TrEMBL record:
This is Uncharacterized protein. Belongs to the Ntn-hydrolase family. One of its GO terms (biological process) is L-asparagine catabolic process via L-aspartate. InterPro entries: Ntn_hydrolases_N, Peptidase_T2. It comes from Cyprinus carpio. GO terms for molecular function: hydrolase activity.
Length: 74
């Protein structure tokens, strides 16, 4: 059975200025996670790396780019 990686980049309206960056980020996260699984890595390793990529991508409202808690990151 082949591994499967599903990445969700958020819900709701994505502004046009973030749409391309978000699409690229989701694809990069999914491909990276899949590559880890294909090389024998664990599901945990694949998920951690995929999430880290998305958290570090300004196209997503997550991680260091989270606007809801940005004051906590200063």
């Amino acid at each position: 059975m082949l591994p499967v990686v599903v990445v969700h980049g958020g819900a709701g309206h994505i502004p046009k200025e973030r749409a391309e960056l978000s699409t690229i980020g989701v694809k990069e996260a999914a491909r990276t996670g899949y590559a880890i699984l294909q090389k024998g890595g664990s599901a945990m390793d694949a998920v951690v790396e995929a999430v880290a990529l998305m958290e570090n991508n300004p196209g997503f409202n997550a991680g260091i780019h989270n606007t809801h808690t940005s004051h906590l990151n200063d």
